[in-house]
Amino acid sequence: MSPSMIAPVMEEENKKYQKGVKHLCDNGLTKVPTKYIWPEPDRPIFTISDKLIKPKQNLKLPLIDFAELLGPNRPHVLRTIAEACKTYGFFQVGSQNPKLHEVISRFLAKQVSYGNGQVVNHGMEGDVSKNMIEVCKRFFELPYEERSKYMSSDMSAPVRYGTSFNQIKDNVFCWRDFLKLYAHPLPEYLPHWPSSPSDFRSLAATYAKETKEMFEMMVRAILESLEIDGGDEAAEELEEGSQVVVVNCYPPCPEPELTLGMPPHSDYGFLTLLLQDDVEGLQILYRDEWVTVDPIPGSFVVNVGDHLEIFSNGRYKSVLHRVLVNSTKPRISVASLHSFPLTSVVKPSPKLVDEHNPPQYMDTDFTTFLRYVSSREPKWKNFLESRKITI
Ligand SMILES: O=C(O)CCC(=O)C(=O)O
User: Fold this and answer.
1) In the structure, which protein residues have their CB atom closer than 6 angstroms to any atom of ligand 1?
2) Which segments constitute the Fe2OG dioxygenase domain (predicted)?
């Protein structure tokens, strides 16, 4: 084929990939298209050319029981959080623990009294997270025409359906579609969220509100674990801050060893609360090895984002993570990303800076971040690295 004939064919191919991997799979696939094949060094390392070179390693992250935060064990739980944020940049919060709902309610003073005088706890009930996963599954099962209504190249659109990591910039695509929902302030964004399935908005809104409440509770614990006296100012700013809910859909992949669901990246915000279904896929970089996080259904994986690493002046680590796909089971995860207001300047807390601990990061803002990501592939830890002060 002459070059003049190849160009239109490639353009047509690329248009097909822009429609997302779910659309591609729905039309039947037996092999991974070249567009999704990662260079060998970046592929999942447990297989190369179908040979097992390393057994897959699983990691049980420290499991934090927030119910213990209000009891005599509080200092111990805070130390566990501090240790987890330094060592892994990750921990898990068990929401299966019936006491957790009670604690969240007490913490937020959100107990609802019903007519018969019964007090019902109003924390994150197991059903809220189960319903969220379930309605998100139904969203991704809708026909392409319905899902594609939300496709947009505008990064600040209140709702955005997309594919890969950055479908405009990525040379090699990831095996992932996503639905990104701006969530705070909720009344401003909710009317833009998908109206189909018909219960999507109400279930996703409940989920967004309750994860925001969990975030607020965790922020207070994290600031205390940093031993910052009077961290209230930062906590209040974060309460007014941004929340973006990202629903990730990873369809089964015919050749999972050749591709990735998400490339290695760190999260831009302060803290991410990740809900996964029961299919494993999340890996974190721990001591230079990729280790798989065991999913605990109904629990949350919590990770330090770039802003917390900056705010803590490097004490807590925003760690690289990535997602593997598999050949049999679809996987859904829901990441709730929280941070300061988009207009804030993020900098090391003055309480963690002194003559022995000079600031390690430049002040940074959202405009700088957007300029950065729109100029290159936002992979690895580049953005955070670019904000480090090197002497
Ligand atoms: O799907 C996952 O387990 C991780 C998702 C993730 O890393 C993200 O949304 O930033």
Assistant:
1) 246, 248, 262, 267, 274, 276, 281-282, 321, 323, 333, 335
2) 241-344
